[in-house]
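Sample entry follows:

_____
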Amino acid sequence: MNNKIYFGDHHMHFISSESQVSENEAINFYELSLKKGSEFARVCRDFLNQNRSIQLLLRDIPFELVLEELKKEFRYIEAAGGFIQKKDDFLFIHRHGRWDLPKGKLEKGEGIREAAVRECEEECGVKNLKIDKALGSTFHLYPYKKDIALKQSYWFYMFTDFEGPLVPQTGESIDEARWFKSPLVLSEVLPDTYFTIRDVITEALVLSKGN
């Protein structure tokens, strides 16, 4: 599990009492007590309203406890997707001007693994997907209707031997689906993707070296 919660270019970062805070980080440091729900909600909303990239440092506050508080405060949504490998290539989609990984919301009654495979097939046109292992979940907050939603995305490392053409799902604002070699993932994809996706890619590329 990835112990960060993102909102755009901001993120909540969990630290222990022994961790040192730099001078720059201290400017954006909050001491929170979850015993007072109103304080937690206020600080969260202040954090979401920032128009600059900051970290919200949470000292000695359990990640799971913060998740539960966020689920109470905001709409909770689950999604699933995949990091897909074919021989020495890795699959990415281009959506809203950035490189991304295929994923989507779970349908009613659908399992996480089933949803991950379905979404990858729908968004890329790829077939013959086999899940190898689970990767860490990612968490991000985003504007939802007139409020905020918390999305937990479950990720899986997948393999395929699919040789057909990729078909981006344009109805989901995907304008390209493309295979990348590892060096190009580092030079082209990582600099132009979301922080949550960057975390997934980094974890998956480490695992790929053992495949």
